[in-house]
Design a protein that fits this description.
Helices cover 30% and strands 30% of the residues. By secondary structure, the chain is an alpha/beta fold. The protein has a 7-stranded mixed β-sheet, with helices on both faces. Helix 1 runs parallel beside helix 4 and helix 3 runs parallel beside helix 4. The longest helix has 14 residues. It is globular. It starts with a helix and ends with a strand. 40% of the residues are buried.
Length: 209
Amino acid sequence: MDKAWLDRWNDRYRSEEFAYGTQPNVFLKEQLAKIACGKILFAAEGEGRNAVFAASLGWSVSAFDISKEGQRKALLLAQQAKIEISYEIGALEQLNYQSEQFDVIALIYAHFPASIKSTYHKKLIPLLKPGGLIIFEAFSKDHLQYNSANPKVGGPKDIDDLFSIEELTSDFSNFEILQLEQTEIELNEGHFHNGTGSVIRFIGRKKAA
């Protein structure tokens, strides 16, 4: 992983305040309310707000990120909530997750660098059980104009780091599409997601091989 990318996220999470707040993402919260608890993996989980929320519902939670500062904040949040999460540091290929380990994989603003984002999606797929779900929300390629109008809404400034429906359809081609849409939403998540943005939302169920 590029050192500049790593330094960026450690700098973002170093403050004692939570960059994206401590409340879960609204879309994730809505989706978890519809399904039974099981084993869930949070990729690029940052400061842990979503992982801690899922654990509070009874999910067995695993998470990973490249940022030690993110992990520090996530474990603090979990301690304050008196719950446990497993949170690993490192690139996905360095971690020891098992084939078909998870019932759900959550990708909530998991904006991996453009050079690896599709590769990471494809590496995550074997970790999901057949019938398991991907829950995805992240900024669309059209989000650049929203960010230009209001930088407080956040998001990558390189269009290649953003997502399209076509990319997700390709990356998760062996999935039943339960929901896949580009939509405009209002964000109110900490200091760095505030205002109107354009996102892709995707719920997919992994088909049997």
